[in-house]
Amino acid sequence: MASTIDLKGLVTWLELADAVIAEHADELTQLDAAIGDADHGTNMRRGMAAAVEAVAAGQFTTADAMLKKVGMTLVSTVGGASGPLYGTFFLRMGGALAGKDEIDAAALAAAVEAGIGGLVQRGKAAAGEKTMLDAWYPALEALTAHPGDVAEATRAAADAAAAGRDATEPMIATKGRASYLGERSTGHIDPGAASTALLLDALARAAAGETA
Amino acid sequence: MIGVVVVSHSPELAAAAVGLARGLMPPSEVRLETAAGTAEGTLGTDAMAIVEAIGRADDGEGVVVLMDLGSAVMSAQTAVEFLEPEVAQRTRLLAAPLVEGLFAAYSAATIGRDLDRVCAEAEKAVDAKKKQLAG
C-alpha cells in the first residue's frame, strides 16, 4: 500500500516516463506517420529527456515548482503540438499542487483534472475526437474512483488510459493534423493517446515503488 | 511603435517572410522579430522562444504576432501565459494569414498606427486578395 507519492516518487515517474517513451519512440512516430506528421516519438523523446535533465539540475522542494519546470521545458523543447499540450498539462497539474511535497490520491486526481483543463483550453478538443483526451478522461475517472491508495489509483488510471488509447482506433479525427484525413483517420490509434497511456503506466509503476 | 513577431515551424519561412516584407516596403523603424524552428534547427515551435521574441519586439506600445499554423498557434497561446500581465495585455495573436497579415501589420505599424488599428489592418488583409479574385 502506498497512500501517497512524494517528490522522489514524482522524479521516478518522470525518469520511468522518459525511458518508456524512448523505448516506444519509433512506435509513436509510426502511429503519427499514419495520421499526422511522423514526429511524435522523436518530439516526445527529446522533450522528456530535457525534462528529466531539468529536474535533475534543479533543487525542488515542492511538487508545483518541479512540475512547472517540467511544463516549461516541454513547451520549449518538444517542437510539435504535444509541446504546448503536455507542457500546459504539467503547468496546470503543478498549479493544483501548490506547496505540496506529498500527494495523496485525491490531490493527484484534482491535479490531473486541472491538467486536463489545460489540455482542453489549449487543444479546444472534447472526448471522442481521437485525441489524448480519450486516454486522459478515463484515467481521471479511474483515479477519482480510487481515493484511498495512490498505487491502486494510478494502476487503475493506467489501465483505463490504455483502454482509452485502444478506443481511439475506430474514431474519426476532427482535431489536429489527423482531421485533414477525415474518415481515413479511422483504423489508427491516436499517437497522443498512446503517449498518454505510456506516461500513466510510468506513474503507476513509480507509485508502486519501482525505481528508474 | 507596435512590434511584429513572426512565428513559424520553419526558420527559413520566417526569415523569407520578413525579408519579403522588408524588401517590398520603405525603410521602417518597426521591430520585426521571429521565433521559428526548434533549438535543434528542426521544424517546430518553441513557446519560450516566442516569449523572448515578443520581449524584443515590445517597446511598451504593443506587439502583434503572426503565426503559420497548427502547433505554432498553440505555442503562441502558451507563450502569452508566460508574459508579464501588462505585456500580455498589449500582445495580440492574429488570425490573419502569415504573409498578408505581416504586410498589413508591418505597414500599419510603420506609419505609427496604434495596436487596435494594426490588428484591424492585418485581420482584413486577406479581403484585398478575395476582392481581386472575385473580379
UniProtKB/TrEMBL annotation, chain A:
<feature type="domain" description="DhaL">
    <location>
        <begin position="8"/>
        <end position="205"/>
    </location>
</feature>
<dbReference type="GO" id="GO:0005829">
    <property type="term" value="C:cytosol"/>
</dbReference>
<keyword id="KW-0808">Transferase</keyword>
<protein>
    <submittedName>
        <fullName>Glycerone kinase</fullName>
        <ecNumber>2.7.1.29</ecNumber>
    </submittedName>
</protein>
<dbReference type="Pfam" id="PF02734">
    <property type="entry name" value="Dak2"/>
</dbReference>
<dbReference type="InterPro" id="IPR036117">
    <property type="entry name" value="DhaL_dom_sf"/>
</dbReference>
<dbReference type="InterPro" id="IPR012737">
    <property type="entry name" value="DhaK_L_YcgS"/>
</dbReference>
<dbReference type="InterPro" id="IPR050861">
    <property type="entry name" value="Dihydroxyacetone_Kinase"/>
</dbReference>
<dbReference type="GO" id="GO:0019563">
    <property type="term" value="P:glycerol catabolic process"/>
</dbReference>
<keyword id="KW-0418">Kinase</keyword>
<dbReference type="InterPro" id="IPR004007">
    <property type="entry name" value="DhaL_dom"/>
</dbReference>
<dbReference type="GO" id="GO:0004371">
    <property type="term" value="F:glycerone kinase activity"/>
</dbReference>
Automatic annotation (TrEMBL), chain B:
<feature type="domain" description="PTS EIIA type-4">
    <location>
        <begin position="1"/>
        <end position="133"/>
    </location>
</feature>
<keyword id="KW-0418">Kinase</keyword>
<dbReference type="InterPro" id="IPR036662">
    <property type="entry name" value="PTS_EIIA_man-typ_sf"/>
</dbReference>
<protein>
    <recommendedName>
        <fullName>phosphoenolpyruvate--glycerone phosphotransferase</fullName>
        <ecNumber>2.7.1.121</ecNumber>
    </recommendedName>
</protein>
<dbReference type="GO" id="GO:0009401">
    <property type="term" value="P:phosphoenolpyruvate-dependent sugar phosphotransferase system"/>
</dbReference>
<dbReference type="InterPro" id="IPR012844">
    <property type="entry name" value="DhaM_N"/>
</dbReference>
<dbReference type="InterPro" id="IPR004701">
    <property type="entry name" value="PTS_EIIA_man-typ"/>
</dbReference>
<dbReference type="InterPro" id="IPR039643">
    <property type="entry name" value="DhaM"/>
</dbReference>
<comment type="subunit">
    <text>Homodimer. The dihydroxyacetone kinase complex is composed of a homodimer of DhaM, a homodimer of DhaK and the subunit DhaL.</text>
</comment>
<keyword id="KW-0808">Transferase</keyword>
<comment type="function">
    <text>Component of the dihydroxyacetone kinase complex, which is responsible for the phosphoenolpyruvate (PEP)-dependent phosphorylation of dihydroxyacetone. DhaM serves as the phosphoryl donor. Is phosphorylated by phosphoenolpyruvate in an EI- and HPr-dependent reaction, and a phosphorelay system on histidine residues finally leads to phosphoryl transfer to DhaL and dihydroxyacetone.</text>
</comment>
<dbReference type="GO" id="GO:0047324">
    <property type="term" value="F:phosphoenolpyruvate-glycerone phosphotransferase activity"/>
</dbReference>
<dbReference type="Pfam" id="PF03610">
    <property type="entry name" value="EIIA-man"/>
</dbReference>
<dbReference type="GO" id="GO:0019563">
    <property type="term" value="P:glycerol catabolic process"/>
</dbReference>
<dbReference type="GO" id="GO:0016020">
    <property type="term" value="C:membrane"/>
</dbReference>
